[in-house]
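WARN retry 2 of 3 for item q-0093 after timeout on previous attempt; input resubmitted unchanged.
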Amino acid sequence: MQEDIQTRVRLNPLPDRLSRLPWWALVAALIGVLFTWTLLTDETYFGILSRVTNGLYITLRVTFIAYLFALLVGLIVALGRVSTNPVIYQLSTFYVEIIRGVPTLVLVLYVAFVAIPLAVEGINALGTQMLKANVLSEIGRSLTALKTGNVENEFRAIVALVIAYSAFLAEVFRAGIESVERGQMEAALALGMTYWQAMRHIVLRQAIRHVLPPLGNDFISMLKDSSLVSVIGVTDLTQWGKLDQARTFKTLETYNVVAFLYLVMTLLLSMGVKWIERAMSRERQKD
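OK item q-0093 returned
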């Protein structure tokens, strides 16, 4: 029976090829074209589009800044996760497990309304002690003058996203580092390199090639999760949508536009990630 099916497929490969075509992408593209036409020709949709895109720059700025710092923090934590020092290993593992166990929305609220005020109080206390000790008095006065209300919501949102995603990125980097054969580190140490020289020149250069695709996927996830910062009043794309819906009461039209803009951005980024994956695959085959 199986041989008969395989024979029919070989004799008539067209149906098999048609079934493998990305029909979902064609349907999505058609819907996208139709909706784009509606956005440009319908007065209601065009008005909503022109208003909510005011938050698009904030969304992209928060995402890019937060992701760059999350990469840095995540790499540092990942190095701690592969460290032979038990204290550094335990501290970095504690950070990763705790942060990954808290929902991103809760973390955004916690950082914005708990961690930042506590940090400001600590800075004020430090300034007070500097004034009492008459050490760098000018700096001490500026530290005591800092108020929680002076910390912008956008900064709080960026800090929250950095903390949330650095834990996930740390595990991506750790997996990439551990994918490099241990013998290469041993060979580098045998040649006289220090541990950090071998890590920087030998291990990390190879690990980065392995982790680029998952890093791209995490960037897409952060772009979508950046919509959570609207709960603390950051005027991003989602917040502009909420404000416009509250003003016009056009719920369906407003959130159609907001969802469409997020979808366009994530699909374009997904295409970029797939291109990177194919490029990495070709390079590995050459090697």
